[in-house]
Amino acid sequence: xxTFTLTMPKLSPTMEVGTIxxxxxxxxxxxxxxxxxxxxxxxxxxxxxxxxxxxxxxKIVVKExxxxxxxxxxxxMTEEKNEPVEEIKQAPKLAPxxxxxxxxxxxxxxxxxxxxxxxxxxATSQGRPFASPLARSxxxxxxxxxxxxxxxxxxGRIMSRDLEGATKFPSQMVEEPLSPIRKVxxxxxxxxxxxxxxxxxxxxIDASALASVREQLKDQGITVNDLLVRGAALALKxxxxxxxxxxxxxxxxxxxxxxxxxIAVDIxxxxxxxxxxxxxxxxxxxxxxxxxxxVKKARDGKLQPHEFQGGxxxxxxxxxxxxxxxxxxxxxxxxxxxxxxxxxxxxxxLDGEIVPYQEMVITLSVDHRVIDGAxxxxxxxxxxxxxxxxxxxxx
Length: 395
Fold this sequence. Notes:
It contains seven helices and 21 strands. It is 22% helix and 27% strand. Strands 11, 14, 17, 18, 19, 20 and 21 form a seven-stranded mixed sheet that branches.
């Protein structure tokens, strides 16, 4: 069999490039079909990739940490150990490191209005402070930000004398390239915020009973988030119009056939939303076990594509950080997401007395193309009733 290549697989529908996070084989190794070859950081997560065919790894072309396009060559393989290795017909297109754009061509002229300028040719270009070469040299040597200096020379040109008494600027900023996950977060959320007509409905609830039930169930590992997922699932069952989305390409509303709740999970380098499928059909204890497993896999970078692609509704909870309230960005093509704040101590009048209670604020972000204000309000009213009577979540 002739030389064959291992190429970058397409591991998600939106994946265009991937980064080799780790090789599990080295040059010269024999591999079997199904054997773990590498871990690839995609636009969604770090995914393990197994060999499709047996053979020998003869040359690894792409090193760990390098990013290449889908279908580009990663390694050369042969069927036999000592079989001659053919040359690669097409080298992989490695993504270039981030570079600052080249400055525009300079327009040169001679100034003769002072002794300093008459001896030097100055350069002006768009986006650069207008300064003499000597001033530029001194500013670089002393660590002075020329953009903060007012020039006293002709047409506001910065002269060396203008640097007297100027303070140094802080340490230079460091440019950090976007990870594959962060690239997609930046692209998708910018698109979502730009294209989706968001509106927001907020509801404060008395979470005292919810906190009490959670305290009673904590030995079983139940969290407030588990109860929130259960409450949202039951509320979505009563209000299926909220369990909907929007297809931009077809310009149609999507009515999702099942309640599949995406849960925002903070991971190194970004955010991912593993999905609890058919959440309305699962008990709080089952939800708790499944959510813990998904969160662990997400933070270990072991989620499989089917575990985070899709979903019909999202929940983002920042209550554990003491956040009072916030508004989340909708995760398309879904039509809504709820943002959960933390407990806040409040007072209320009950039976003629002032009593303390725990307040929680929930904010529903809604795609107005899909859901109207009245529908959003009815959904939050139902969710409020479940969370203020949490015994309903346990049946």
